[in-house]
Amino acid sequence: MQYQSTRGGGAKVSAAQAIVRGLAQDGGLFVPESIPEIGLQFIEDLRPLEYWQRAHRVLRPYLDEFSDGELEEILKLAYSSFDVPEIAPTKRLSGELFMLELWHGPTLAFKDMALQLMPHLLSACRDKVGETREIVILVATSGDTGKAALEGFMDANGISIAVFYPEDGVSQAQRLQMVTQEGENTHVIAVRGNFDDAQTGVKRIFGDAEFNEQLSRAGVVLSSANSINLGRLLPQIVYYFSAYADMRNMGAIEAGEQIDVVVPTGNFGNILAAYYAREMGLPIRTLICASNSNNVLSDFISTGVYDTGRKFHITSSPSMDILISSNLERMLYALVDGDSARLSELMDGLKTSGRYALTEREIAKLHSFMVGGWANEQAVSKKIHECFEEYSYLMDTHTSVALSVLDEYRNSTAPAKSLVVSTASPYKFGRAVLTALAGAEGEGDDFECCDKLAKLAQQQVPAAISELPTKAVRHSTCCDPQDMKRALIEELKLRL
Ligand SMILES: *Cc1c(COP(=O)(O)O)cnc(C)c1O
User: Fold this and answer.
1) Ranges under pLDDT 70 in the chain
2) How much distance in Å is there from the Cα of 311 to the middle of ligand 1?
3) What is the structure's pLDDT at 10?
């Protein structure tokens, strides 16, 4: 399989090259030259398999430079640190409603699904393309990605990682998870700004040709682990197939029965993987893109106008507090039928005026498979309460955004079995979840909130959280958005 830039520049590259480079040279994202199609029998055949075996089948056509044995070894390793044998279990809440839990990895959020695998892929790809320079992974995070990337890349061979996070844009537990990170090759830097400031700063460093030259002479090359990297995207396609196979195994759906899938969306990576699964032939009727109060995506989906000229809200679902959803570019590429000139025009509009507009035809195509919706803070809180009352099921704020949007959508459409993508453990956002359940603002710090939550739900606080307060802080660097490059040089102790 070959991959090409959405913007049309440069030659086609292999998966290994795309994963090592992260971003294409012309600033575009790598997309597969064609999406492999599978039949219903392929999905039926997944039913008796373990998660890593399902991943092997789904990823096979995308990673044809890997031998069967090599892929098997990497996949088994990646999915060995999850706390349930199913890896990504699907839970049935009612006849129609299913939860796909993507938070059983070491950092309790869905990013682990890809980031436990990606470092292994990258290490192998580094060898495959004959790269001898040290790879430095740069990450801008709105919270969960940072920790999941640090955990995945810790002590990886020939790879270091530097994570930038918005100082006031992450929860107490998220911050502690990052600043206590172990491993000699890990670096964590707070940015005085919001997520978009951090992300823009990282993009600027990637685009700084002179700096990259200097680095190269010092034997260092930058790459990304952000969700725009192909190595992040591909592993996420797997769990949609896996969930469908599990729903078949429960006897909940017929072979080929179409389901709706609702995804709480920020950078558009997770739902893009669902779109690829649908294109491959997974029977998905509608993809429902769920936003919080930062509703730029749901406005875009209803009107065809993407407009970032709006207020930025800090919400109880911070991993979705995003105004520029980088991965959307890959779906736009499909919407414009691979017309790179048209795509570049849209992206130029975004860069120069913060907005772009689709044509009627492009909007119609989008509406043939996707709807969008959003939930405000009050709705998110209320839905957590309702869900616990009705199903005794505890969910986090991000998942609640998805369920809120789904419930609204169901009022206006023919019934179908619905899969809600649950992206974080409720204990990762314990204060907000407790507040939703108990009414009054949860008292005490995040950890006391988790203890109270666990009592209420008659569960145990996951160890990844309960042991955090006793861990030593190892990272304390903080910088202004315009100083990120300098902070990086100091952190990595580079002599340029
Ligand atoms: C990252 C994240 C999201 C958003 O996923 P995208 O792929 O960026 O759309 C949603 N929920 C949680 C908990 C996350 O960590």
Assistant:
1) 440-442
2) 20
3) 87
pLDDT at 191: 97
Cα separation of 16 and 22, whole Å? Answer: 10
CA of 209 to the centre of ligand 1 (A): 30
What pLDDT does residue 301 have?
Answer: 98
C-beta atoms surrounding 283 within 10 Å: 16
Amino acid (one-letter) located at 286: T
Give me the pLDDT at residue 37, please. 95
Q: How far is the CA of 320 from the centre of ligand 1 (A)?
A: 6
Q: Mind giving me the DSSP string for 338-405?
A: T-HHHHHHHHHHHHHHSEEE--HHHHHHHHTTEEEEE--HHHHHHHHHHHHHHH-----HHHHHHHHH
Q: Choose the residue to mutate in 100, 270, 295, 384 for probing ligand 1, maximizing ligand atoms within 8 Å of C-beta.
A: 270
Give the Å distance between the CA of 268 and the centre of ligand 1. Answer: 8
In whole angstroms, what is the distance from residue 1 CA to residue 64 CA? 6
Per-residue pLDDT, 21: 86
Q: Which two tokens stand for residue 229?
A: 């990297």
Give the atom of ligand 1 at the shortest distance from the alpha carbon of 142: 1
What is the reported pLDDT for 441?
A: 65
Task: Indicate yes or no: pTM above 0.90.
Answer: yes
Query: Given this model, what pLDDT does residue 334 score?
Result: 96
Q: How many CB atoms lie within 10 A of CB 447?
A: 19
CA diameter of the chain: 63
Q: Where are the alpha helices (DSSP H) in 281-359?
A: 296-303, 328-335, 340-353
Do 369 and 287 form a contact (C-beta atoms < 8 A)?
Answer: yes
Place of tokens 């710090």: 445
Q: d(Cα 293, Cα 311) in Å, to the nearest integer?
A: 10
The amino acid present at 38, given as its one-letter code, is I
Q: How far is CA 297 from CA 34, 288, 289, 300, 426, in A?
A: 26, 11, 8, 5, 24
Any residues with Cβ below 6 Å from ligand 1, and which?
109-111, 144, 227, 264-270, 319-320, 398, 423-424
Q: Are 425 and 393 in contact (CB under 8 A)?
A: no
3: Cβ contacts below 8 Å, ≥ 6 apart: 12, 13, 14, 15, 17, 18, 30, 31, 32, 33, 230
438 burial class (0-12, 13-18, 19+ CB within 10 angstroms)? middle
